Amino acid sequence: MQPEILLTLSAGSVRPLLANPQAFATDDLKLPQSVFELPEFVATDLQLRGLNLPTDLLKGFGLPEIDKLRDAADRAHCPVLLVFEEPAIDFTERGPNWAKAIERLKRLGLAANRLGCPSIAVRAHAADTDTALEATAAGVKLALKELDKFDLNLLLAPHEGLTYSAARMTDLIKKIGGFRIGSYPSFAHAYASGDLENTLRKLAPYAPAIAASVRGFDEKTGEHDGYSLEVCVDCVRSVGYGNTLALDFVGRGEEAAGKKTAKKPAKVDIIGALLKARIQLEAATSEPELALDEEEE
Predict the structure, then answer these.
(1) Phi-psi region of 222 (alpha: psi -120 to 50; beta: other; left: phi over 0)
(2) Most buried one in 15, 122, 191, 297, CB count within 10 A?
(3) Are 26 and 257 in contact (CB under 8 A)?
């Protein structure tokens, strides 16, 4: 029997909704008006079982706001499972910027601890050289000592340079060592790498969580754009993965690449795409039922 995979939401998916809920309003859904209403919406309307939070959604929060969000998550039975710092950190730095980075990680550690969150994820900014690998490993070890007081795991998300290839990412994780370090892969990165299946298979064993990137769906066929979500699930399950998949709407094409176009982009049905992805992922992660009570013909 395969281990159960928990389906959650990467809250970065709904940034546009939180910024302007009226623009996405429908008769069917009561959209969250703030991040404090997000856990109830995720659990009730999206039928997902947890949250990954990018740190920009916590901007301006003090401990009272952090505690308020944790209480909202507890009431909705939708815990915050990961806090994700999206700007990359240079772990090879040892000057003034390094002190700022460590202080930032300590603040993130405190916030994650108050949220009852087991992990924080970051990107490592470094050139793809052996020297940078050694320096990054040393820097991450120093960071882990600071985070250890908060009882947190540190996950590395793929980033251009040193951690872009799965092989180099695993080399780095092995170099760092210990049980507090891991990876935070994504379907989108695996697809962009040009070797989706091997990338996911290599990184999944080190991953307490994986971003199940959602680009969009073909209106006629219902197929996911660019890659099959089912294939992605098969890849990670083939190496025994049984942790969480965080649905993460990233858009597609030029939108996903962050490119600007001359034309005004069409309104995207983010919630519709997330619901379709949830249905496909539920089907891909569920165990088939054995009809033992059926009579033989």
Answers:
(1) left
(2) 122
(3) no
Which residue carries 């959209």 as its tokens?
Answer: 31
Nearest Cα neighbor of 270 from 36, 31, 5 is 31
What is the Rg, in whole angstroms, of the alpha carbon atoms belonging to the chain? 20
* SS3 call for 120: strand
Q: How far apart are CA 177 and CA 137, in angstroms?
A: 9
Residues 214-244: tens digit of each pLDDT: 999 998 999 999 999 999 999 999 999 999 9
- In whole angstroms, what is the distance from residue 107 CA to residue 247 CA? 26
| Integer Cα distance of 137 and 133 in angstroms | 6
**Total residues belonging to the chain:** 297
Helices 196-203, 166-176: inter-axial angle, 10-degree rounding:
10
51-64 CB burial, b ≥16 within 10 A, e <16: bbbbbebbeebeee
Amino acid at 135: A
Query: In the 8-state DSSP scheme, what is residue 224?
Result: B
Q: Which two tokens stand for residue 26?
A: 């429908």
Strand order of the β-sheet with 119-123 is 181-183, 153-157, 119-123, 80-84, 51-54, 6-10, 244-249, 209-214
**How far apart (Å, rounded) are the C-alpha atoms in residues 50 and 269?**
21
Q: Per-residue pLDDT for 296 more than 70?
A: no
Residue 49, by phi and psi: left (phi above 0), alpha (psi -120 to 50) or beta? Answer: alpha
pTM of the predicted model, to two decimals?
Answer: 0.90
Supply the angle between the helices 229-237 and 270-285 in degrees, to the nearest 10.
40
Give the residue from 112, 66, 104 showing the smallest Cα distance to 88. Answer: 104
